[in-house]
Each structure stands twice: as structure tokens, then as C-alpha cells.
Amino acid sequence: MAISPRGILRCCILTFVLSLVAGCASTKIVNQWTEPDYIARPFKKIVVLGISKETTLRRSFEDEFVAQLRSNGIEAVPSYQLMPEEGQAAEARLLKAVKQTGADAAIMTRLVRIERRTQVTPGYYNPYPFHGFYGWYSSGWAGFYEPPRVYNYDVYTSETSLYDLSRDRMVWAGTVQTTDPGDIPKEMKNYVKTVIDALKEKHLLRSAPQ
After folding, report:
1. Which residue among 21, 53, 142, 200 sits deepest, i.e. has the most Cβ atoms within 10 Å of its Cβ?
2. What is the pTM of this model?
3. Would you state the pLDDT for residue 21?
4. Residue 106 lies in a domain
């Protein structure tokens, strides 16, 4: 069964729109800062702090960060093992818990905002194929118009920072944008990898010699 030119065009447009939707999910660092006078050194252990009122999300995020740090040869511990309670910890509680781990650095991530954005693909007019002068003239009376396609998606902006506990100073901060995170576990892995890669590129993340 032959497919008409109109049917072929509809398929092409649908494929294009689906590719846009599928390709939107992404995580990237849009801004970062590094302490200019800081001389990096290997850390013995890093405590991971996920700032979220959703306990499950916090634990999953901290576990993913710990797993990827350890795969890079860096010892790490999730904060929920030290402070399982929800909400902000008191100063004395936090300092005591971190000190017990022997960590000399901390990584903290917090969600800054969520934005709803809209993407519009323009409409398209396509005349039918024509032959000769009259065919060309007739095509002006035929053809069809595909209306614009509207796609709404969310952009999550988060901030991750690295704190040197032994020197009591924040040494790196990055603003990270995640677009349309439909598959949360997958995007969580991408987020953590993006941050770790950035820290390694700045030579701020190295495993301590055994």
C-alpha cells in the first residue's frame, strides 16, 4: 500500500517532534566557581549532604553520590546514616555527626527552583506535487498546513558545593540544570556524574593514597 506525500510528511513531523521530546532530558553545569587561592589535596573521606524534605529522594541521591565517589577511589558516607531525622539539623548535631565520620570534606546539593518552559515548533505548509504551469497554479488551491506543535517541559536548577572541612572553607560551587527529568534514577546518575567530572576537571577530587 503506497503512502501519500501528505502521510509521509506527517510521519516526518511526528518523528521530529518525538526526537525533540526524547532529546530534551539532559543535565549540565551552567555556572561554576572555584576558590582562586585554594590548593587542592586528596580527601580521605567525604560526607554527602542532600538537602530535601523528601526522605526517599534524599537517601537515593546520597547513595548515588557515595557509590560514584567510591568507584573513583574516594571514600564517602551518606549523611542520612549519621542524621536519619528529617529537616534541618542543629549546628551541634551536625558538627558532632560529621566529626564522628572522620570526614575532611563535604558535598552538599540543594534544589534552587523549578521552571515550566514551553517549546514551539513552527507550522509547515506543503503543496501537492504539480506538473506543468496549470499544475503549479492548482497546487496553490490544494496543499495542507500542519499547525505548530507545543511542548511543555520542566527545568530543575540545583546547586552543588564542595566544602573543605579541615580548612573550614567552601572551595567549589556549581549551578546545574536538569531538563525534563522523566526518568529520575537515570537523571540522578547523570547529575552526580556531571558534578564529579567537573570536580575532577578542576583537580579538586582525587583519591587519597592508601
Report:
1. 21
2. 0.74
3. 41
4. yes
